[in-house]
Structure formats: C-alpha cells, structure tokens
Design brief:
Blueprint lengths: L8 H14 L3 E3 L23 H4 L9 E9 L16 E10 L4 H13 L11 E5 L4 H9 L7 E3 L4 E2 L4 E12 L23 E14 L5 E14 H8 L12 H10 L10 H21 L8 H19 L11 H8 L5 H4 L1 H35 L4 E2 L1 H11 L3 H10 L3 E2 L1 H19 L10 H5 L5 E2 L6 E12 L2 E2 L2 E2 L6 E5 L1 E2 L13 E4 L5 E10 L5 E7 L3 E2 L3 E6 L1 H25 L4 E7 L4 E6 L6 H16 L4 E7 H6 L13 E7 L3 E4 L14 E10 L2 E8 H21 L8 H34 L4 E3 L2 E7 L5 H14 L4 E8 L2 E8 L1 H5 L4 H8 L6 E5 L2 E6 L5 H12 L1
Parallel strand pairs: 1-2, 4-5, 10-11, 12-17, 31-32
Antiparallel strand pairs: 2-3, 3-9, 4-7, 6-7, 7-8, 8-9, 13-14, 13-16, 13-22, 15-21, 16-20, 18-19, 18-22, 19-20, 23-24, 24-29, 25-26, 26-27, 28-29, 30-31, 32-33, 33-35, 34-35
Helix pairs in contact: 3-4, 6-7, 7-8, 7-11, 8-11, 11-12, 12-14, 16-17, 20-21, 23-24
Length: about 900
C-alpha cells in the first residue's frame, strides 16, 4: 500500500464533494447555521438537518442524490471542549444523501471506493473496520461482497439510528486504525477495539440506512421510499491525513492557536499543560462565534444569542488564564476567514463587521468579569464565615449563568482556598435552565412522516401570473379532499385542494402572501373562492378552495385573481426591494434580510443590524426609497442560470436554496436581487413610500413596517387630521406654528414646576422645624420619630439631610403616606454607627408593621409598605428597639 496522502482540509472537503458529484449527486451549498422554518432546532446541527424537507416529503428535490459539506453547531457537551481530542462546538459534516433513490447496494461500495481508491483518499483497507447492526444481514453481505475481511466487520446493537417518531433504520460506522502509538489504553484493554472508548480506532463515517417509519404506536413500519443519510466529520478525517494526535493539530485549528500564542503572556501550546486546554477552547470557540455571527446571529441573553455570549465569555476567561487581559478574540476573525476561505469566502468578506460585534461583547464582558471575580471572592469569604467547606451550588450557577464562569473555573478558585463546590446543586440549576430552553424550542418532533399522496403527484402546472391575472381555460388536473384524489368535489364548509395545469394565482413564497380570487365555470357562475395557495412537494401551485358549487376533475375553469389586492401586493413587494437596498446603502453592507412579509396593506421587513438606528438614518432610508420611485425606473425581470445571476451582482438570501435556473429582478442601477415574486412594471406605480415604525424585535434583528400608495396617503391624511385637531385645541391658526406653541407651553410648565418645587421646599423646611422640635430620649440616644406630609421619598430624604446637617438627634424615623402607600426612612448618626447601631437593623424591625420591607446603608435605610394604619405601630417599635 502506498504512503498515506498529505491532504489539506480544503482538499479533503473538495475531494468528497467531487467524488459524489461524479456519481450524479447535486452539491448543496452549506446552509446558514440559523435554521429556517424549523422551530425544533436552535442551530443547524448536522448535514441531514438541512435535508429534512426532502426526507419528510414536504418538498421533492430536483435531484434525489445530494451531497454537502455542512457547517454545524452543537453545544450539548461544551464542557468537554479542549479536554478531549475531538469535541467541538462548530464542525463540518460531510454527507451524501439519497431521497428514495439508491440504497445499500450503491452507498456501501461508493463509500469504500472513496476511502480506499488511490484516485481519492487512498486509505489502507487493512486499517479500516466496519460495524453493523446485528439484524442487518443485507448490509453485512454487501460489505463482505466488496472485499471486507470478516474479522474487520463487527456487530453492534447500538448501530440503529432512531430519533423517535419518523424515519429510522440501521447504520454502519467506519473506523480507522491509527495505530497503538496513538492509543490512550493498553492494547489488551477491553475498550481497545473499533467502537470502544479509546484513541486508537477513530470513527470517521456513519452511513444510515433509513428504511423504517417509527410510528406513534412505537412500531417500525417499512418506508415507501428508502433513504440514505451519511455523516463524515471533516475535522476527524483531516487529522488522519495530517498525522495529528488530535483535531487541534490540523490546519483547521493550528493557525488560530499560533495567533493566540502571539497575544498571550509568553504561553506556548504543546506543553501538555492546562494551558493547552485554554488554547484549544479559544481556537474552537472563535470558529463557532465567527460563523454564527456571520450567519446573522448576535450575542444576547436568550436562545442562540445566549450560546454566542456564553462561547465568547468562556474564550475570554481562558484568555485570562493565558495572561491575556485585553480584548483579543476579535483579532482572530481574519485568521478564521483565511483558514476557511476556499469554501466560505463570505467570512473574510464580512470580517470587519464580525470582529466589531465580538470586540463590543468582549469589552462588555471584561468589565463584567471583574464584577464576577468580586462576587466569587465574596462567595468564598461568606462560605468560610459560615464555617462551610463547600460553595453553594446556586451561587456557583449564578457565577456561571450571569458572569460566564465555567464550573471548572469556580472549582479551581475554590480549591485554592481549600473549598469544594456543591456540584449536585449546580447541576440541578443547570437542569432547570436546560428544561426552560427545551420548552422554548417547542415539542415538535425532529422530522415528519412522508405524505405519499402529494409526493406522488408529479403532473406539471405552469404559473402565468407574472403576465396574466386571468386564465380562461385552466384544467383541474388534481382535486383532493383530505389527501384523497376525487373525481368530483361538492360544496362544503371544509376546503379542498386543487392543482390546475395553468394558474395565475401566486403561491406564497419569499415573504409574498398568496393570491386570492374566484373559480368560474363555463356558465359564468362562481363555483369557488381560492383562499390560499402553497407549493406542493413537487413544486406545483396547490390551491386551497372553498366551493359554492360542484367542481369536477378534468373540467376547465376560468381563474380570476383579485386584481386590486394583487396590485397592492406588487407595489409593496417592489418597495421591499428598494428598502432592502436603501438599508444596505445607509447602514452598511453587513445589513442582511432576516425575514419579510408582503401583504395587501403593508410590508414588514426584518434585517440584521448591531445597534439602534438614528432618526436621521431612518429619514435618509425613507427618502432614498422615494427618490427611486420619483425616478420612474423600469423594472426588468430576467430568468437565467445561477452563475450568470451572480455575475450580474444579484443579491441572494443566504438562507434560500436556488435551482439551476433563477429569476432576477433588476431595478435600474439601484438594486438587483434573486426573486420569484410579483413586481410593478415601473417604480412610479408605487406612488409613495412611508415608514410606519422601526424597532428591535430580537437580538441584533430590527423590523421596519411601511406602507405605499393608497395606504401611505391614508396614513399621511390621518396624521394631518391629528395635527389640525391639535392646532385647534392649542388655538394655533396654522399647523406650522405648532412646534413653537409646544415649546412655549413646555417653558411655561417648567416655570410652574420650578415655582412649585420652591414652595414645596419651603413647606418642607417649615415642617422640619415642627418635626425636629419633638426629640425623645431612649437608652441608646435621642430619637425623632414622626409622621410627615410630603410628596414622596425625595422629600423624605431632603428632611433626613436637614436632620443630619443640624445634628438634631442620634436617630431619625420618618413616615409618610403617598398615594395610599407608606414611605419610611431611618437615619442614624455617624457616632452611633461607630457604636454598632445600624439603620438597616431598625428598618427591618419596624417595616413589617406597614406591610413592607426594606434596607440600606448603616447610616441610612428606607422601606415601602401598603398599610398606612401601621405607621403609629412602626414609630412606637422604633422607640422600643432603642430601649
């Protein structure tokens, strides 16, 4: 056998894709890490996660053979990152997939060819071992048929892929023998075998034979279409070709480790010390952070934003261990981009934006980190003061959850002080948080069950709504009730579903809502209303219809779109494109669409932007859109191939998948985008564009709602009416004088408030003379304890300041009723504080009498309550406390 090839990570990835492309597979680009229309996932966590729509039958792929290298994130075992050879948060999963096409007879030989052929990976067959499910005799036979030695095939009961309800089946795992020199166990250890817990036999590929449907009754029924789903970890395979003991010594991670060495305090990787773990954590986390932010996720306190924030904080803490005290992670972003440039050029293109987000978060956390260290030190002191040898689990979790302290860091600090950590208590708090996260993601199962009826419907249907909103002779080629084909449907309250050979009705897609309208028979009678249109699995426009008269399969009907509604939607859709471009021009190229809705009466546009938007920027965006409307630009639509569209500079949504032929909408030299929706012919048809609102709707996601044409006129008319009414109320003859009138009224109000405050201050001073005249004697000094009439706590504090400046007594207790609630304040002179008397102790004693509680400093404390009747009791208790 020839010597092991020396391949870069880019070569390993490309070779995998090229091999399956030669075997008729379509290369699917790596999808965004942020799932689209999938509430069951926080992140895309595998290659098959992006293929679910094909496997569950909701969409039929153009090519049933697919291959991808999919970036993925998993954080369920984040604590192991850096401590083991192959745990990562972000990784790439190489995979080939068959959707009802080939099965074991092809998948197994192809896997073997890729792995062992000198034209491809060229691995030594003697070093490869296979595991199979014991009952899967067919797979074993195919493996043996291609020449695998019987002693290189092992049976394992765990070789069955099952996620609950949905597709499932046996699988085969492929292991590579790295040699005993790579092992962490002795050769005769019981775990030293392919599939055991050891470092010698490395699992590199898992081939799932998806052939059963796991039913709600917990039975396994054969699937009508058998599928292939495979997964090969790129990082693992690369470690083989680069003779790396762990994944971190490959070209995917080493440049990041070297870059970290340069900014560390003379730390060097490879010394088999605790420093190595920190280097690995940083290299791993910065990859995940960079790609996540590049895919429009941003740090926050919830969901995937919390994951990013947690990763940044763990990396910063590990940087501290390496002597890095300033922000540094952001400096590693270009290195990530350079490593991944061959397949992910967008990382370098967006490096400045990604780095700015990370630096902002680092700066925030570096300030927080010091607070966390203060809390940790205080927690250690309290633990010792209470004569305990264990830090409370809830306190440890607060350090982890609020300040980003991993439990191992708290443990290290505790051990230095001779303490332990209540890790059971910590785990209990972590479990509560995980349950909250799972509940937030919903209970939907990971993959649906195939619908045979609509998958099998392959009749062609043409959409002609770009040019015609009426079709005179559309044939009803499929008429279905409850996914059952019928020859004639009768009127009913329940909707039916119809596919016509030609249709002017737009199917909801790309944020544009579906058309509605009428179905008319050859007698001119309306037989039904189209209430919704969606895409069937094979791409046809599927009409949801409420019938008023019978409708027959095979008959021809006139289809009429609600024209007025459709034209309003067109205006809003074109305005959405103008808004998208204007936001990019004003805010920067990093701004990306995060969702849109194009309705009849308004448009909604969500976009990624880190930070708020100024009123000036918003006005600039609005004016830029209107300027394109006033320019009267002709709208051009072109259908072309994908590469030609990209050469035209067309903007593509990263979350969308595009076929070989795409439709491009071009608005002069202002905007060019991929789009399958309906648009006006000329921007002047939009009339006018007006932003209604702008606000944040999530971490790093902002939303603009806007209106056009008639709806914009109505908005402006309503606002003008409101202004006129305001002018009448304020007795202003012209609207333009309103701002001056309001400014004058504000000045008058401020003057009235100033006079009022002055009078209140005089009344408070006068009341102080009366109150401070009643000084009582107690065993612990003199006391003033009175109920007063003030407007709130601020005036109570003003009285307390006067009391302290005049040294009226040793202790002050004042109570006031404001809006049926009690405000209570206690002051203690500095001399009495030195003797051990504390205002906080007094307030805690007397506050229950007013039905409240409070606290404060030793020399001043305050409380609030809901029981005014208890004031006399509270004042009496204050005197009792001092006796």
């Amino acid at each position: 056998m020839s010597e092991l090839k020396q391949l870069s990570s880019s070569e390993v990835r490309q070779m995998f894709l090229d091999f399956f492309a030669q075997h008729g597979h379509k290369i699917e680009p790596s999808a965004s890490l942020v799932p689209v229309d999938d509430p069951t996932l926080l992140w895309i966590n595998s290659g098959v996660a992006t293929m679910k729509k094909y496997f569950d039958g909701s969409v039929v792929p153009e090519n049933p053979r697919l291959v991808s290298s999919q970036k993925s994130i998993r954080t369920n075992d984040i604590e192991n990152v850096g401590k083991t050879a192959r745990h990562h948060t972000l990784f790439e999963m190489l995979g080939n997939f068959s959707v009802g096409d080939y099965f074991k007879q092809d998948a197994i030989p192809w896997a073997w060819e890729l792995l062992t052929s000198p034209d491809w990976y060229g691995l030594d067959p003697e070093k490869l071992y296979i595991t199979v499910y014991p009952k899967d005799k067919e797979a074993r036979q195919v493996w043996e048929k291609i020449g695998i030695k019987p002693d290189h095939i092992l049976e394992d009961e765990d070789n069955f892929w099952d996620i609950g309800r949905g597709p499932s089946g046996p699988d085969s795992e492929i292991f590579y023998d790295r040699g005993q020199e790579m092992n962490n166990l002795s050769e005769d250890d019981p775990e030293s075998y392919p599939g055991g817990e050891n470092e010698r036999y490395l699992e590199i590929w898992n081939i799932v034979f998806s052939q059963f449907n796991h039913t709600p009754e917990d039975t396994f029924e054969p699937l009508p279409h058998k599928n292939i789903d495979t997964g090969m970890g790129l990082e693992r395979v690369v470690s083989i070709f680069q003779h790396a003991r762990t994944n971190f010594e490959t070209d995917l991670f080493l440049p990041l480790i070297k870059a970290t060495e340069k900014v560390s305090d003379h730390k060097v990787y490879g010394k088999a010390s605790a420093d190595d773990v920190s280097f690995k954590v940083i290299a791993d986390h910065i990859r995940a952070i960079t790609f996540a932010i590049g895919d429009s996720a941003l740090p926050s306190n919830v969901g995937r934003g919390y994951v990013i924030r947690r990763l940044i904080r763990r990396a910063v803490v590990n940087g501290k261990k390496l002597g890095i005290n300033d922000a540094f992670l952001y400096q590693l972003v270009p290195t990530v981009g350079e490593i991944m440039q061959a397949y992910y050029p967008e990382v370098l293109a967006n490096a400045d934006y990604i780095a700015s987000v990370i630096k902002s978060e680092e700066d925030r956390f570096n300030a927080t980190l010091n607070d966390g260290l203060d809390l940790l030190n205080a927690t250690i002191a309290d633990t010792k003061a209470n004569h305990s040898d264990k830090i409370d689990g809830e306190a440890a979790f607060k350090l982890y959850d609020t300040y980003g302290f991993p439990i191992e860091l708290t443990r290290e600090y505790a051990e230095d002080e001779g303490l332990q950590v209540d890790e059971d208590g910590f785990d209990a708090e972590m479990h509560k948080q995980q349950n909250r996260a799972r509940n937030a993601r919903g209970n939907t199962k990971s993959m649906g069950v195939q619908s045979d009826f609509w998958i099998s419907v392959k009749d062609e249907s043409e959409y002609v709504g770009y040019d015609n909103l009426v079709v005179d002779d559309a044939k009803a080629i499929i008429v279905a009730q409850d996914e059952t084909d019928v020859t004639e449907a009768q009127p009913s309250e329940n909707a039916i579903e119809i596919i016509f050979d030609r249709t002017p009705f737009y199917a909801e897609m790309g944020g544009q809502v579906a058309d509605t309208g009428a179905i008319i028979n050859n007698l001119g009678e309306e037989v039904g209303r189209v209430t919704d249109v969606q895409h069937a699995p094979n791409g046809q426009n599927l009409h949801t219809v409420i019938l008023s008269k019978p409708l027959k399969k095979g008959a021809r009907y006139k289809l009429v779109v609600d024209r007025a509604r459709h034209l309003k939607i067109e205006k809003n859709h074109t305005a959405t494109h103008l808004l998208d471009q204007a936001l990019r021009n004003v805010l920067g190229g990093h701004t990306q669409q995060a969702g849109s809705l194009v309705e009849q009466h308004y448009l909604r546009f969500d976009f990624n932007h880190f930070g708020s938007i100024t009123e000036d920027d918003l006005q600039q965006v609005e004016r830029m859109v209107n300027e394109q409307i006033w320019r009267e630009i002709e709208i051009q639509t072109v259908e072309t191939d994908l590469e030609s569209a990209k050469e035209m500079g067309a903007i593509a949504l990263f979350s969308e998948k595009y076929g070989d032929r795409v439709r491009v909408v071009k608005i002069g030299d202002f905007n060019t985008e991929f789009c399958g929706g309906d648009h006006v012919r000329n921007t002047n048809e939009i009339g006018i564009f007006k932003i209604v609102s702008e606000a944040g709707v999530g971490a790093g996601v902002r939303r603009i709602e806007a209106v056009t044409a008639e709806d914009a006129y109505k908005l402006l008319h309503d606002r003008e009416t409101l202004l006129k009414q305001s002018a009448e109320v304020l007795k202003v003859p012209q609207i333009k004088e309103l701002p001056h009138k309001i400014e004058a009224l504000q000045s008058e109000l401020k003057e009235v408030q100033r006079v009022n405050d002055s009078l209140q201050s005089k009344l408070t001073s006068q009341q102080a003379s009366d109150v401070f005249g009643n000084v009582q004697s107690t065993n612990q000094g003199t006391l003033v304890a009175e109920q007063v009439q003030v407007n709130g706590m601020d005036q109570l504090r003003q009285l307390a300041d006067t009391w302290r400046s005049k040294a009226v007594s040793d202790v002050l207790v004042l109570a006031a009723v404001v809006n049926d609630k009690v405000n209570l304040i206690v002051g203690v002179s500095d001399a009495k504080v030195k003797e051990g008397l504390k205002a906080g102790d007094i307030i805690k004693t007397i506050a229950p009498a007013i039905g409240g509680g409070g606290g404060g400093r030793p020399n001043m404390a305050q409380a609030g309550g809901k029981n005014p009747a208890g004031i006399d009791t509270a004042l009496s208790q204050a005197k009792d406390f001092l006796n």
